[in-house]
Design goal:
globular; alpha/beta; disordered N terminus
Length: 337
Amino acid sequence: MPTNNQNNQNSLNRSQHPSTQTSRTAETQIQTTAMKKTAMRRTVIKDLFCLLFAGVFCAGMSPLTAVPPATGVPPPSAQSTPSPKTPQAIYVVFIGDSITAGALVPAPKENAPPAKAAAWLAKQSAVELRGFSNQGVSGYTTVDFLPSRQKVFQRVERAAARFAREDETARTSGDRKGKAAATLVFSVMLGTNDSACSGTNGAPVSPEHYHANLTALINALAKRFPNSVFVLHNPLWYSPSTHNGARYLQEGLTRLESYAPKLRELADARTASHTGKVFLGDTEAFGFFKANAAENFVHEKGRSGQFYLHPNRVGAAKLGEFWAKAILRTLENKTKT
C-alpha cells in the first residue's frame, strides 16, 4: 500500500502531466513556425539571387546564358540604324584669271587648281560631283567678266547652261530621275589683275569698283541660274617685286589686300543682294602662300627681279584643296540654313 508521500508524488505527477504535454506541443509549434520562417527566408534569398544574377544560378540556366530582353525592346541587332544621308549633287564652274587657268603648271587640264579641287571634292561622301568647268582666263579682271562685255561672260554662261541641261536630263530620264535639282556652284577668285598699277584691263581697279563689278556678275548669273550659289575666294598673295607685262609691285599688293573686306561685304547676309546664295570662300591660302612662297610658286624673272605670282604644280594642288574645302563648307552651311 503506498505511503502518503508516494500518493502525494503520484498526485503531483498526474497533476503535472497535462501541462507537460501542452509545453511539448508549444515547442513543436514554435519549431514548426521557425522552420517555415527559415524556408521563407531561403525562398526570398533565392528570389533575390535570381533577380541579381538574372537567372544565372536559377532554373537550371547556364552562367553563360543571355538574359532575355524586356518585352517590347528589340535586341541590339534588330534595332534600326540611321540611314546615310544622300550626297548633294553639284556642278562647279570656276571663274578666275591665269592662276585659275593653271598658267605655267604642266598639264593644266589635270593639274590646275580647279582640276585638283574637283578631284578632292569627288572623294567626299557628302557631295556627288557631277562635273566642273575651268573658266579661268589669263590676264583677266572683274572688268573683263562684266555681263556687258559679253565675250567671256557668255563662255561662263554656256558652261553653266550645259550643266543645267545635263542635270535636267538626268532627273527626267537618267540616273537622277525624280531627285532634286543639283546645285550649281560658281567658285570665283578674281582680283590679282585688278590690283595691278597698269597693264591690265581697267587697272588699277578701286575696291569700290571691284565690289560693283562682282555684284553685277553675281546678279546676272543668279538671275539666269536660280539654283546656284557663289563662293568668293580671297585673291592669292603675290610678291611685292611682281612686275611682268603688267606692273604690280607693293602698291598693287596693298590694293589687293583692300579687296578682302569687299568680299566679306558681298557674302554678308545683311547686305548681299542674294541672301543665302553668296558665301565667303577661302581666306587661308593668302597667308599660306606668303609663308611658303619658295616651295609653292614658280620662280619667275621680271623687270624688277625675281617674283612669285603663279603657283607651281605643288602650289596648284594646294590651292585647289583650299578652294575645295571652302566649297564643301559652304554647301554644309547652306544645308543647315
